[in-house]
Fold this sequence. Notes:
Strand order of the largest sheet: 1-3-2
Structural class: mainly alpha
Order of helices and strands: EHHEEH
Distance between the termini: 26 Å
Number of domains: 1
Number of strands: 3
Amino acid sequence: MPAxxxxxxxxPDQVKTAAVVAIGVFVVVSFLVMRFIQKVVxxxxxxxxxxxxxxxxxxxxxxxxxCQQQLRDSLGRECVxxxxxxxxxxxxxQALVPDGEG
Length: 102
């Protein structure tokens, strides 16, 4: 499955902020699930899925930070990092690539 590229107007910091917001939404939904779902097995299953999604987003957020740092340190030619299967262009990276190399 090919990766999807976000528009240039969305930078990695906005993606990381959106991930934190999504994790917060998962926490709120988890509390609502615990309050309103009566069947224990279904409750545990939904909580496990939400917790797994939150952990996944958090690890992807860390990977995005690491990728941005590596691009800035190495002056890489490819200014794209991945986040949950989506390519995110690092702003300002193209300006760091010497003329004729990118």
